[in-house]
């Protein structure tokens, strides 16, 4: 367990920060710039979706069937 002096210091720091809640400068707030999907994976996904749609359109057009 931490010593009494450490606990007292941590408690004082906490008490000092309690009343500053919401007043954090913008420079201290971490920005998340991580994309959930990488650009390569997104490109492959779009290639597959658009390619399969074009392939289906060409198949329907060449066979003479209605959609």
UniProtKB/TrEMBL annotation:
One Pfam family it belongs to: RAMP4
In the UniProt record, the signal sequence range is: none
Q: Does the keyword Transmembrane apply?
A: yes
Membrane-spanning parts: 40-61
The reply to whether Metal-binding figures as a keyword in the UniProt entry is no
Q: Which UniProt keywords apply?
A: Endoplasmic reticulum, Membrane, Transmembrane, Transmembrane helix
Q: Where in the cell is it found?
A: Endoplasmic reticulum membrane
Query: For this chain's UniProt record, which GO biological process terms are given?
Result: endoplasmic reticulum unfolded protein response
User: What protein family does this chain belong to?
Assistant: Belongs to the RAMP4 family.
Protein's name according to its UniProt entry = Ribosome associated membrane protein RAMP4
